[in-house]
Amino acid sequence: MPRKLGITAGVVVALAGVTLLAFWGGRASAGRAALAAPVQWDEKASAELAAALHEMHELINAGDLDAAKKMILGDDVLVTFELGPDNSTPVALRSKEEVFAFLDSLMNTTAGDGTQIGLDAPKHQCRATRTFGVCTQECTVRFRKPNGEERVDKLFGTNVAVKQPDGWKFIQWHMSVAAPSTSYKLGDKRPAPVRHGH
Q1: I need a labelling partner for 103 at 20 to 30 A (CA). Which of 58, 70, 73, 149 fits?
Q2: Do 71 and 59 touch, CB atoms closer than 8 A?
Q3: Domains in the chain: how many in total?
Q4: Does 60 lie in the same domain as 128?
Q5: Which domain holds residue 176?
């Protein structure tokens, strides 16, 4: 009888071991499959995100910075990388408050000498799930001075956004220079390259 119990106990332990191995093996296999599976992009969410990015550009063009700020959630971990007023000096913004202060300063700096900022409709592409999205954009920024002179800057950007109950909010972005600045003067037929800060 003791021998029988010993055999039975051994069988139970062996079966338990096989079951655990199968369980953990299955979990590992499922984990590998999840890592290998492509992200499930949502076409509708991607289109909504693209529309949100376009709307934020329109609000800035209209000078409605308060409304544009409502579309910026910011993040205290992911740093936003911007360019200074010359669109060549890198600036790191480490919180929503710093992003807002930067936007206010940029608007005040240009408005101080009567310069107007205009953003052309960007060429942008967006990918999104139902809650998270990324856009890349190629944009043109125009600085128009009261004397008719205009500086044109070409920029590249990447924007990261999350879906909130009241719509898409941007949490981080990274701007970089796409091409040297050009400037136009009244009567100019061709743009002349300019150095930043002049």
Answers
A1: 149
A2: yes
A3: 2
A4: yes
A5: 43-193
pLDDT mean for each 10 residues of the chain (198 residues): 49 45 53 69 98 93 93 96 92 97 86 79 93 96 87 95 98 95 72 41
Instruction: State which amino acid sits at residue 106.
Output: L
Beta carbons within 8 Å of 148's beta carbon, 6+ residues apart: 185, 186
pTM of the full predicted structure? 0.73
Residue 151 lies in a domain: yes
The verdict on residue 12 lying in a domain is yes
- Does 142 lie in the same domain as 109? yes
The answer as to whether 159 is a domain residue is yes
Q: How far apart are CA 83 and CA 74, in angstroms?
A: 17
Residue from 126, 121, 137, 125 nearest 45 by CA: 126
Torsion, Cα of 135, 195, 198, 178 (10° steps): -10
Task: Report the distance separating Cα 169 and Cα 78, nearest Å.
Answer: 14
For 164, the token pair is 């909130």
Q: Are 84 and 143 in contact (CB under 8 A)?
A: no
